[in-house]
Every structure is written in structure tokens, then in C-alpha cells.
Design brief:
Layout lengths: L15 H13 L1 H18 L2 E3 L2 E3 L6 H6 L5 H13 L3 E8 L2 E6 L3
Antiparallel strand pairs: 1-2, 3-4
Helix pairs in contact: 2-4
Length: about 110
């Protein structure tokens, strides 16, 4: 897992206010809360049982658009938290693209 310094929430040329906002998110627990909400939305999307006749199945992958269309979380929040979840070894990119979006999967799923 990468640390905040190895995987910063702000970019090198961002204004100081971006760094302060990132620091507040980490210290307040808001970052962890958002990551958990996004992960739960991903898990719900992946493991939602769909019934087509008598066929039950789960999905094996997702895009940020998939999660956005099936949750109440903003697309911006989903996009921003995927990297954090990747750095915590909870999800990974498959290397594919769908609808101009990276395709992801839950690790160990």
C-alpha cells in the first residue's frame, strides 16, 4: 500500500489550498469514509444478483460509469477514490477499456 506521500491527493503544481484540503480530508476521516462508500457501491454492483428467467449471476468487472449509474455517489467522487482503493490493493485495472473508461475488478474476487 502506498502512503499519502507516495500517492498524494494533490498534484505538484496545485495551489496550497489543495494540499490543505487533502490534509483535512485525511485527518477528519472523510477520505476513508468516501473510499469505503465507493468500495461498498462497487461490491454491491459486482454482487447484485440479476434474475433473467431462472439464471442468477454476478458481474466480474466494472467502470466508474457503471458504479455511478447504479449508486447515489457522484461520478467525481468515484473517479477520485478508485486510485486510493487500487493503492490499498482492493481493486485493480484489467487493462481493458469500455465506453472510454478503464475497466476494474475487485482483487480476490
Amino acid at each position: 500500500m502506498k502512503t499519502l506521500f507516495e500517492q498524494p491527493l494533490s498534484h505538484t503544481d496545485d495551489p496550497i489550498t489543495s494540499y490543505k484540503a487533502a490534509d483535512r480530508m485525511v485527518k477528519s476521516g472523510a477520505l476513508s469514509k468516501q473510499e469505503q462508500e465507493v468500495y461498498e457501491a462497487i461490491d454491491s454492483y459486482i454482487h447484485a444478483i440479476r434474475v433473467a428467467g431462472s439464471l442468477h449471476y454476478t458481474k466480474s468487472d466494472f467502470t466508474a460509469k457503471d458504479i455511478f449509474s447504479s449508486s447515489t455517489i457522484s461520478y467525481y467522487t468515484i473517479q477520485r477514490r478508485l486510485s486510493g482503493l487500487r493503492n490499498k490493493d482492493r481493486i485493480e485495472r484489467t487493462g481493458e477499456k469500455r465506453d472510454n473508461c478503464s475497466v476494474w475488478k475487485i482483487i480476490g474476487d
